[in-house]
Design goal:
50% helix; 4-stranded mixed beta sheet; 4 strands; alpha+beta; disordered N terminus; DinB/YfiT-like; Maleyloyr_isom; 7% strand
Length: 228
């Protein structure tokens, strides 16, 4: 009797359109929100990125996407030093110009990421997470959630499996089927998470989970962080 294909296994087949779809969904929600905010809101601190303001995060995101669109990946790109230079290059820009560049990047980077064979998929997930950071800084509801969450969770699951991350089975309020993350070779029993999708995203990206209700068994939160 052959092995049965589970829904979790199906996720391992890369959907090249998924990263671009995630960016487009987030663009359609985030850009109008940014354009409606007062200028001083762009100076608010972002708790998930110490030392960065909302504007810093947006400048980092727009610069990264512009690099993708223009295929500019010099040595050291996306290092902390490179990120700081990208932000500094935009110091003289208006907030509106940064938002315009971000909108263009979120629109045009998708096809480039789709054609990159998977090596840029994590960047799309990172952009979506940073959008959650901005929503969080604004006190907006739905940070690390919303319409893009299913695509973000599927991307997160595949990326953690490709990286051989610690195995975890997540029973999510937001999905009908359990989500399997991390390596599945059986070397260690999987941990288990019970809770909602935004909290799982926070755990995997090192964001604070203060006040969130969830269960995490068999693995420590610090072991989940894909950016750690």
């Amino acid at each position: 009797m052959g092995s049965m294909t589970t829904p979790a296994d199906v996720h391992d087949v890369r959907d090249p359109e998924q990263p671009g779809r995630l960016l487009a969904i987030e663009r359609d929600g985030l850009i109008p929100l940014l354009r409606a905010r007062a200028e001083e809101d762009f100076a608010l601190p972002v708790g998930a990125c110490p030392g960065w303001s909302v504007r810093s995060v947006l400048a980092h995101c727009s610069a990264a996407l512009t690099r993708v669109v223009e295929n500019r990946f010099e040595d050291g790109v996306f290092s902390p030093e490179s990120n700081d230079r990208d932000i500094a290059e935009r110091d003289g820009w208006s907030n509106a110009r940064v938002v315009d560049e971000l909108e263009r990047g979120m629109t045009e980077a998708g096809p480039v990421i789709a054609g990159a064979g998977g090596k840029l998929d994590g960047l799309a997930l990172g952009e979506w997470v940073h959008a959650g950071d901005v929503r969080d800084a604004f006190g907006e509801p739905g940070a690390y959630g919303g319409a893009g969450l299913p695509d973000a969770l599927a991307l997160l699951a595949r990326i953690t499996r490709e990286r051989g991350h610690v195995p975890l089975h997540a029973d999510l309020d937001d999905l009908d089927e359990p989500l399997r993350l991390g390596e599945s070779g059986g070397e260690r029993p999987p941990g288990r998470f019970i809770g909602d999708g935004p909290t799982l995203v926070r755990l995997y990206t090192g964001r604070p989970v203060d006040g969130a209700e969830f269960e995490l068994v068999g693995v420590e939160a610090k072991d989940l962080n894909i950016f750690g």
